[in-house]
Write a structure and sequence with these properties.
75% helix; cell membrane; 258 residues; zinc; ZIP family metal transporter; mainly alpha; 0% strand; globular; ZIP
Length: 258
């Protein structure tokens, strides 16, 4: 039961963020959006380090000075996986007029949701892998540590839900439709986490690689999407401040609860 609740926490964050469309009239102000994007970036980078890469290396201590290999290999594969997904799946980033990925006839709104869905994949995978490790009674992953990761991702999912639903509303969609599409952008997270947990018995032997794989995929999203979006327009340090706050919040969560 605890595991089921744990994998739903990030999705709840997205849903609550998307619900902002019922309370806010227009798009989020640019400075606020930059701060939220920076915050999300900080949370994801801290989660990648403390919740994924460090446990990956701790689990490989028996390899001695080569304990970095699973973390390095998995991290690289995670980057390559998201790079491939970015090239294959048609999607449109906020503020951009040209879609990326394979050419298709999908509507703009659909491709906006696909863009958010695409970078939610590694987050769902990260939660699933950590809970799978916890269920396998791995001493390097505790129940509270797994929940810390879920809570951290839920916190950064809140602004993501708002950032996708509010522009959809401003483009002529009803509040209900914008909320639904914003919510659906996060549904891949619990689905991915659940599938990962169901495969736990097969995952355990390669858990260090999968933890770092999820870390690589998350870092790709931050560098390729979140930071560039936070840096668009007039120069401002607000995104940097948001990043610092997000990083510290996730670090505290992981150390205090883990």
């Amino acid at each position: 039961m605890n595991t089921f609740l744990g994998i739903l926490i990030p999705f709840a964050g997205t849903t609550l963020g998307a619900a902002c469309v019922f309370f806010l009239k227009n798009e989020i102000k640019p400075l606020v959006q930059k701060m939220l994007l920076g915050f999300a970036s900080g949370v994801m980078i801290a989660a990648s380090v403390w919740s994924l890469l460090i446990p990956s290396m701790d689990m490989s201590e028996h390899m001695g000075k080569l304990a970095f290999i699973p973390a390095a290999v998995g991290f690289g594969l995670g980057i390559l996986f998201l790079l491939a997904m970015d090239r294959l799946i048609p999607h449109l980033h906020l503020g951009c007029s040209e879609p990326e990925g394979k050419k298709c006839s999908l509507k703009k709104n659909t491709m906006l949701v696909l863009a958010v869905t695409l970078h939610n994949i590694p987050e769902g995978m990260a939660v699933g892998v950590v809970f799978a490790g916890m269920l396998a009674q791995n001493s390097d992953i505790s129940m509270m540590g797994a929940f810390a990761l879920s809570i951290g991702i839920a916190i950064q999912n809140f602004p993501e839900g708002a950032i996708i639903s509010l522009p959809l509303k401003s483009e002529g969609n009803t509040r209900a439709r914008a909320f639904t599409m914003g919510t659906l952008s996060g549904i891949v997270e619990p689905i991915g986490a659940l599938l990962t947990i169901l495969l736990a018995s097969y995952i355990t032997p390669v858990l260090p690689y999968l933890l770092s794989f999820a870390a690589g995929a998350m870092v790709y999203v931050v560098v390729e999407e979140l930071i560039p979006e936070a840096s668009e327009g007039d120069h401002s340090n607000i995104a940097t401040i948001g990043f610092a706050v997000g990083f510290v919040v996730m670090m505290i969560l992981d150390v205090a609860l883990g």
